Amino acid sequence: MKVFVTGGAGYIGSHTLVQLLAAGHDVCVFDNYCNSSPVALARVRQLTNRDVAMVEGDIRDADALTAALVDFAPDAVIHFAGLKAVGESNEKPLLYYQTNVTGSTNLLAAMDAANCRRIVFSSSATVYGEAQYLPFDEEHPIGPTNPYGRTKAMVEGIISDWARATPDASAVLLRYFNPVGAHESGRIGEDPQGIPNNLMPFVAQVAVGRRAKLSIFGDDYDTRDGTGERDYIHVVDLADAHLAALDYTGRAMGCEAINVGTGQGVTVSELVVAYRRASGRPIPLEIVPRRPGDVARSYAATAKAEKLLHWRAALDVDAMCASSWRWQSDNPQGYPMAGEV
Ligand code: NAD
Ligand code: UFG
To answer: What pLDDT was estimated at residue 293?
Structure first.
């Protein structure tokens, strides 16, 4: 199958490319590298011994996006491209709406022009907001609490409306919980710019000596040990879920939102213990006040993914930490300059 992958050079996109290529699909990536490196694609080519077509472009540029889609004529699209930093979305909301929302309407219009009716979209568990009950199932009310989350909720609605109005359209909205880890080779992984916002890359940078200590944001939550509890999902499992979702779009019409998580909550303290074990490094830490906007607990109901996609997570927290550490210790400063591989 021919698959057009926006944001394919990024963290989750690059891992998904490896699986797509290994499964024999032909891919074309559309990315402006605003949060990624061409080296990631070079390494994907190396890992898979396959070529990846690449168009450097911005999803806000409707003409460029349409030209690329019409030229490649894909059977399906996976839409990763977007901005994802919650804090930045509070400071630059219009940038987030333009990139995530307008970029997505541009993509759907380009798909119409290219006569492509299958899409898998990167949504987020952040669309649920405050938990009214746990685990979060897909029927849980939507109530995002920041501009980033609102862009994801809006795009879900837009894709759902598009699917309803488009004969034979099929869309899957994957609501990721907390993606972590790396490809087992250690050649591709998460390479955040500046100070990491998320727990796992921060812990990895402390372990490798790039940062002095981890700040744990609060130890007085209503959880097993007082630290925040999340559903961490190995990025390789997440990549598999995209292939399962692509298959699904080939056998069912309409639009479905589907959680992608393990169903298991892991606390910050538990994750640090697992990372110490995987890395053999001490990981100094301090407890600091809660981070505004954080919830105590978040984890997925997984029954819908199992039922519709025939997919469930296979990799545990130890595998997540071990693969993250392999990537981080082999690439302490992240990807090298473009041109190197
Ligand atoms: P990432 O930043 O590594 O990848 C996003 C890719 O999109 C990057 O390669 C970036 O250069 C590209 N991009 C951004 N704006 C673009 C634009 N205007 N035009 C073209 N390309 C553009 O992020 P990721 O972690 O791989 O996330 C992929 C998707 O999954 C995003 O939509 C994100 O919101 C969503 N998501 C991520 C997480 C997470 O924790 N990583 C959780 C839930 C949802
Ligand atoms: N945490 C720390 N110290 C840090 C970073 C995080 O203690 O330096 C804690 C947080 O307080 C939270 C847990 O680690 O309890 C996880 O925090 P992350 O920032 O890694 O993840 P979040 O659950 O806050 O949010 C992430 C993404 C969102 C996405 C959401 C659900 O950042 O974009 O998962 O998918 F929407």
So the answer is: 85
Specify the pTM.
Answer: 0.98
Q: What is the mean pLDDT of residues 44-63?
A: 97
Q: Under a CB-based contact definition with an 8 Å cutoff, are residues 261 and 302 in contact?
A: yes
CATH code of the domain containing 144:
3.40.50.720
Is residue 297 within 8 Å of residue 229, measured between CB atoms? yes
Ligand 1 atom closest to Cα of 12?
A: 26
Instruction: For residue 86, give the ligand 2 atom closest to its CA.
Output: 33
Ligand 1 pocket mutation, candidates 44, 122, 197, criterion most atoms within 8 A of CB: 122
Residue 338 lies in a domain: no
For ligand 2, say whether the CB of 290 is within 6 Å of any of its atoms: no
Q: Is 170 a member of any domain?
A: yes
Domain count, the chain: 1
What's phi and psi for 230, nearest 5 deg? -135, 165
The residue segments making up the domain with residue 181 are 2-330
